[in-house]
Amino acid sequence: MKERAVPCFGNGELGMVVPVFLAAVFLLCSGIPAGSSPLAVQIKRTRGPRDEPFVGLNIGTEVSNLVSPEALVSFLQVQKIAHVRLYDANPDILTALARSKIRVIISVPNNQILAIGSSNATAVAWISRNVLAYYPKTLITGIAVGDEVLTTVPSYAPILVPAIEFLYSALVAANLHNEIKISTPHAASLILDTFPPSQAFFNQSLSSVIVPLLRFLSRTGSPLMMNLYPYYVFMENKGVVPLANSLFRPIAPSKEMVDPNTLLHYTNVLDAMIDAAYYSMKNFNFTDVKVLVTETGWPSKGDSKEPYATIDYADTYNSNLIKHVLDKSGTPLHPELTSNVYIYELFNEDLRSPPVSEASWGLFNGDLTPAYLLHVSDTGGFLANDTTNQTYCIAMGGVDSKTLQSALDWACGPGQANCTEIQPGENCFKPNNVKSHASYAFDSYYQKEGKVAGSCDFKGAAMITTTDPSRHSSFFLHQGKQQHRAGKFHRLKWCSQQIRAHHLKKWRDRCIGEGISTSSSNTFLPFLFNSYVDATLSYRPMTVDLWLDEIHSFVIVP
Ligand SMILES: *[C@@H]1O[C@H](CO)[C@@H](O)[C@H](O)[C@H]1NC(C)=O
Ligand SMILES: *[C@@H]1O[C@H](CO)[C@@H](O)[C@H](O)[C@H]1NC(C)=O
Ligand SMILES: *[C@@H]1O[C@H](CO)[C@@H](O)[C@H](O)[C@H]1NC(C)=O
Ligand SMILES: *[C@@H]1O[C@H](CO)[C@@H](O)[C@H](O)[C@H]1NC(C)=O
Ligand SMILES: *[C@@H]1O[C@H](CO)[C@@H](O)[C@H](O)[C@H]1NC(C)=O
Ligand SMILES: *[C@@H]1O[C@H](CO)[C@@H](O)[C@H](O)[C@H]1NC(C)=O
User: Fold this and answer.
1) Mean pLDDT: which of 31-45, 219-233, 425-439, 510-524 is highest?
2) Is the pLDDT of residue 228 over 80?
3) Which atom of ligand 4 is nearest to the CA of 80?
């Protein structure tokens, strides 16, 4: 069983400290100091051409009905996820990852550190059991020794660096120390006074551990691992840290945070946190250690105290994060150095304890259905569907039907939305109610107008969403094995909410009968089916027969 630090500062009893942005100064300045710093030069020398910055995914497994390791690995490949971090060294997952070319950071759980740090032999055994048994078939590229040890289990602090050194010696003995890097992920709260970044420093009372650690990282060319959550910075400093900066949204120059000492402009919180880590290391005279963001993310659901844990914000943060990393724009301090980042996390871990957000950091549910769709379609297929760069316009909930009807009349009349499909007898006539029809017409208008500002208003009756209104009922149909093998399939799109209960029940029963799913959710069934087919790259003929049987229910979208 893994033991894992809660990735949040808000875990009261731990008394963690949130990075304080209270010193944020808003200045209007020009002239961003640019150019190569010594760090950039030093690190560049050690970077090969294949070291393009990447985004990986953390895989926590406190998920009910988690798919098999084999299905997990196929799924990672379908999603083009090439880097993952595990919170342990799960033998089944490491075995399944063999020959997948997916690179993996494995972890020493916190509760094993004491044993390893006390005994060289234990460290040797650990490496043998968890690394040598799999490498090189499984591309283990890093070992994270514990998670947020210094802030969650400070009593282990004295043993942390010895544990790291012992593990390193064992890697040296196996001649794998160049391929596999060892470090330990820290909570952001280890760094104090994070804004302005140039004044940030490590908690001095831990310097007896941090200095030897940095010496180790510098000597071995290993990264400083940091878990950095702009979400918590925003939540703990509301009114001071703008939401837009936390989400990487474009902001007016006057809203940029300016470091008064360096005059560097910070347009987003994550970059400021990364630079705070660089300045903190510099305070201890270490200038050649790179920052690796082992965790960052945004929850998509929360309780009443977590109003910013929503799908739209989670989508915005994670989509913008991915684009930011793949843009290779570095940070204001180190424009040449883009940190690799691991998103927290792949799955919604429904078995984690409250608050609600704890179970809602994932991009996907445990059954491989997306928790929401990211907007990353120009990232070479990484986590992307061609259709995900989408916003939709739908009828707002709670608007009375008279208002909706007049907005609908306007859209289909003067607005010239294409309302063919919602006419009687057409594909999207059912369900025949004003809200469904209005959503259809609003979106038609919105798309026709090129989504320009103001085209999704309808006097307040409409709202923009990133969730495809037909997503619960749209899926790919694999039109026969040959075409599937050749990677060709048509997208069949169901009109929003046109699901007929009896069809779904039939499919669900078949699914359960086939052992594909035990999910009792009607809504997600077509979705689940499709994910299953995608994930396993195989399907049963019955699947296709079943779909074809219902083909008249669908609109084919090229
Ligand atoms: C630990 O074992 C390695 C060999 O596996 C050896 O090189 C190293 O010197 C040992 N360290 C200590 C402190 O005993
Ligand atoms: C610094 O670390 C010490 C030791 O873990 C801890 O007691 C203290 O609260 C930390 N200080 C701050 C400001 O976080
Ligand atoms: C860093 O270097 C400066 C100048 O060489 C020195 O004065 C200072 O004590 C050093 N700081 C640490 C933490 O080693
Ligand atoms: C694309 O979207 C479908 C559902 O619309 C989903 O099942 C699939 O996993 C997605 N694929 C990728 C590569 O994101
Ligand atoms: C996706 O949306 C972003 C922002 O709206 C835009 O810059 C980008 O060009 C879009 N990509 C595609 C492939 O449409
Ligand atoms: C309206 O939509 C229908 C069905 O999707 C399509 O066949 C028709 O060409 C569209 N009309 C216009 C003017 O775009």
Assistant:
1) 219-233
2) yes
3) 13
Pocket lining: 377 vs ligand 5, CB cutoff 6 Å: yes
What is the token pair recorded at 155?
Answer: 């009593």
The bound ligand whose nearest atom lies closest to the alpha carbon of 281 is 3
What radius of gyration, in Å, describes the C-alpha atoms of the chain? Answer: 25
Structural domains of the chain, ranges and CATH numbers in brackets = 12-359 (3.20.20.80), 392-465 (no CATH), 471-557 (no CATH)
Q: Which amino acids bring their CB within 6 angstroms of ligand 3? A: 284-285
pTM of the model: 0.66
390, two tokens? 């989408």
Q: Could you tell me the distance, in angstroms and rounded to a whole number, from the CA of residue 131 to the centre of ligand 3? A: 38
Say if strands 475-477 and 462-465 run parallel, antiparallel, or are unpaired. unpaired
Q: What pLDDT is recorded for position 502?
A: 42
Residue carrying structure tokens 């959710």? 521
Q: Which of 3, 52, 70, 148 is catalytic?
A: 148
Cis amide bond preceding 7, omega within 30: no
Closest CA to 232 of 392, 82, 19, 39: 19
> DSSP for 35-84?
S--HHHHHHHHT--TT----EEEEE----TTPPPHHHHHHHHHHTT--EE
pLDDT tens readout for residues 492-522? 333 323 333 444 555 555 555 555 444 544 4
Residue-wise pLDDT for 297-345, tens only, equals: 999 999 989 999 999 899 999 999 999 999 898 999 999 999 999 999 9
Neighbours of 332 (CB within 10 A): 25
- Measured by CA distance, the residue closest to atom 9 of ligand 5 is 378
How many CA atoms within 13 Å lie on the side-chain side of 265? 15
d(CA 183, CA 220): 10
- Taking CA atoms only, the protein residue closest to ligand 2 atom 1 is 203
d(CA 235, CA 243): 9
Catalytic annotation on 148? yes
Q: How far apart are CA 27 and CA 136, in angstroms?
A: 52
